[in-house]
Amino acid sequence: MSDNHNQHHIVPLSTYYTIFLALMVGTALTWWVATIDLGAMNNVIMLTIAVTKATLVVLFFMHVKYSSKLIWLAVGGSIFFLLILIVLTLNDYMARGWYTFG
Amino acid sequence: MPTNTYLNAATTLKSWLLTRDHKRIALMYIAGITFFFGIGGFFAALIRLELVTPAGDLLTDETYNKVFTMHGVMMVFFVLIPLIPASLGNFLLPLMLGTKDVAFPKLNLLSFYVYLFGSLFTLYAIVAGGLDTGWTFYTPFSTVASTSAVVPAALGIFINGFSSILTGLNFMVTIHKMRAPGLTWFRLPLFVWALYATSLIQVLGTPVVAITIVLVAAERIFGFGLFNPAVGGDPVLFQHLFWFYSHPAVYIMILPAMGVVSEVIAGMARKQIFGYSFVAFSSLGIAIVGFLVWGHHMFVAGQSIYSALVFSVLTFIVAIPSAVKVFNWTATMYKGSISWQTPMIYVAGFIGLFAIGGLTGLFLAAMGLDIHVTDTYFIVAHFHYVMVGGAIMGYMAGIHYWWPKITGRMYNEFLGKVSAAIVFIGFNLTFFPQFIAGYAGMPRRYHAYADAYQVWNVLSSAGASILAVGFTMPLLYLAWSLKNGEIAGDNPWGAVGLEWNTTSPPPTENFHTQPIVTWDAYEYPTPVEGHVV
Predict the structure, then answer these.
(1) Is the ipTM of this complex over 0.95?
(2) Statement to judge: residues A56 and A14 lie in one domain
(3) B210 and which of A21, A35, B161, B331 could share a cystine (Cβ 3.0–4.6 Å)?
C-alpha cells in the first residue's frame, strides 16, 4: 500500500481562520434569515447554509480535501447512507394522502 | 499445552483489566455477554411463567410491561449486538488476518469499558423504577406518558452505542490495513467478510439511533415536542429514525453468525465454500439493502401507502442475498465429508431455524398479511427464529468450534451434541406454538389473554424450560473443560485457516513468525468419490 496516504498536508493557519470566519458568517446569516418571514423558503435557505457549513468543516477542519481516495470513498459512502435516510423518510411524508382506503 | 500463551503471559487482575490483547478483551466480552444473557433469560422466564395461565395472576400489568421491556433491552442491546463481533470477532479477526492485534488495541479496550458502563447504567434503570416502553421506546408513550426510568435507560443505550461504533471502526481499519502479506481480499475467510459488512452497519447506523434516543430523553426532559402531535411533532418520525438503525441491527446480529456458519461448514464438510465470492458479496448486499427496508415495521403506523409499498418491495429483495448464502452452504455440504460434531449440529440447527425465520419474514414483507399479524405473537416467533435460531445458534456453533483454540482444551463431545439437540428441540417447542397463537390473533405484550390460546402458551413455556436446560449445559461442561478437558492440540478439526496455524491457546503476539499467505481460503483436499478423506 502506498505511503502517500500517510503524508500530512500542511495547511496554512490563514485557511483555518478563513473557514472559521465563513462558519461565523453562516451562523449570522442563519440567525438573520430566521428573523424574516420567507414562508417555505426559510427552511430551504437555512438548510442550504447548514449543509455548506458542514461541507466546509468536513473538507478543511477534518482534512478530507487533502486525504486519500479511500477517505473520500468513506465520506461519500456515509453521505450516501444519510441520503437513504432522508429520501426514504421523505418518500413517506411527501406521499401522505396520495391514496387512502375507504 | 504450549508454555507461552496469552492466558499465562501475565496472571494479575490488573493484567486482565488493562489488557490490550484482543483475545483477553474478547474473553471479557464473553463474560459480560453471558452475564447479561443470564439477566435477559431471567426476565424471559418470568414472562413464560406469567403466560402459563390466561389470567394475569403472577405479575401486575405494569410489572409485566417492565419485565418484557427489560428482557428486550438486555437481549438486543447488551447480548445480541455485541454477541459475535465483540467476542469471537475480537478473538479471531487478528488471528485470521495473520496479525498481532487489531489496528487500535487501546480503543478496543475502551469499547469494552464503554459497553460495561453503558449496560450498568441501564441496569441502574431497573432499580430506579424499571422501564415499561418496550425495547423500541415508541413515542409519544416514552416521551410524555411513561412514568418509568426512560432517561437513564436511554442514556445507557446511548453510551453503549459508542462501544459498537468503536468496535466497527476498529475492525474496518484492521481489515483494510493489517492483513498478512499475500492475504488479498478474495483470500479472506468469509467470517472476515461478514465482520466487515457488520462493521459497516455499526459505523453507519448506530449514530442515528444514538441521536434518536437522545432526542427522546431531551424531549422528555425539556418538552421539545419533536415527536408529540399535540405540539406539531410526529411520532412516526421517531419510528423512521429508530428503525433506520434497528432493522439493520438485525443484520448486525445475523451477519456474523452467517460468517461463523461458513467457517464451520467448510471446516466440518472439508470442502471449499461453494460460490465463495457470491457468499462474500451477499454479506455486503445484506448490509446495504438492509438499510432500505425499515418501513416494513411501520405498515400500520400511519406512513403513506405508497411508501409502504416501496418498503414492501425492497424487503422482498433483501431475502435474495440471504437465500444465496443458504443455497451455497447446502451446495458446499453436498458430497462433503461431513463430520457431525457439536459445532456442525448447531450449524444444521441454524440453517433450519434461520430458514423458518427468514421465510416468515417474507410473510411480513407482504403488506396484507403483515397488517393481519402486526403486534401478534407471530411477530415474536418470527424474530426469535432469526435472533435466537439464527444469531444465538451461530454463536453457539462458533464457541464450540473455536473453544479448543481459545482454551487449548476439548469439551465433552457427547454432552455438546446432547445440548445442541436439547436447544433445538426446546427452541422449536417454545417458539413454533407462538406462530400459531399469533396467527390466530393473540396479541403480544399482554399479561392476560383469551383462554383459547392457553394450550399454545403452555407448550411454549414448557419449551422455554427445556431451552433453559440446553443453554445451561454448555455453561457447565465448557467450564469443566477449562481444567479437565483433553488437550486439544493446535488444530483438532484439521481445518485450514490462519487461526489454526498457531498454538492453542495462541501466544500473546498470535504467531511466532509473520505468516505469509500463498493459498486461497478453504483449500481443502478434494474428496475422492466414494472415499472418506
Answers:
(1) no
(2) yes
(3) B161
Question: What are the φ and ψ backbone dihedral angles of B168, each rounded to 5 degrees?
Answer: -60, -45
Distance from the A96 Cα atom to the nearest Cα atom in chain B, whole angstroms? 5
Chain segment B121-133, per-residue pLDDT in tens: 899 888 888 999 9
SS3 labels along B116-179: HHHHHHHHHHHHCCCCCCCCCCCCCHHHHHCCCCHHHHHHHHHHHHHHHHHHHHHHHHHHHHCC
The whole-angstrom separation of Cα B495 and Cα B444 is 44
Rounded CA separation B329/B337 (Å): 14
Residues 55-94 in A contacting B (C-alpha not used; CB under 8 Å):
70, 77-78, 81, 84-85, 88-89, 91-94
CA dihedral B464, B469, B471, B475 (to 10 degrees): 160
Domain count for chain A: 2
Is pTM beyond 0.90? Reply is: yes
The contacts of residue B186 (CB under 8 Å, 6+ apart) are B276, B277, B280, B520, B521
CB B53 within 8 A of CB B466: no
Mutual orientation of helices B235-246 and B248-269 as an angle, nearest 10°?
20
Residue A5 in this model has a pLDDT that exceeds 60: no
Range of the domain at A72: 68-102
- Taking CB atoms and an 8 Å cutoff, what residues of chain B touch A95? 304-307
**Strand, coil or helix: B233:** coil
A56, A15 in Cβ contact below 8 A? no
Gap between the Cα atoms of B111 and B104, Å rounded:
11
Taking only Cα atoms into account, the Rg of chain A, rounded to an integer number of angstroms, comes to 19
Q: Domain coordinates of chain B in residue numbers?
A: 13-501
Out of B236, B237, B306, closest to residue A98 by CB: B306
| H or E stretch at B4 | none
B310 contact residues in A (CB cutoff 8 A)? 88, 91
- Contact flag A81-B291 (C-beta cutoff 8 Å): yes
Q: CA of B304 to nearest chain A CA: how many angstroms apart?
A: 5
> At B409, is the secondary structure helix, strand, or coil?
strand
pLDDT under 50 in chain B at which residues? 528-533
Q: Which residue has the cell 424450560?
A: B465
* Residues belonging to chain B: 533
**Which homologous superfamily is B13-501 in?**
Cytochrome c oxidase-like, subunit I domain (1.20.210.10)
Cβ-contact B385, B431 below 8 angstroms: yes
> Which among A1, A84, A98 has CB closest to B291?
A84
Q: What is the pLDDT of residue B49?
A: 98
| C-alpha cell, B335 | 458430497
Q: Which residues pair with B41 in a beta bridge?
A: none
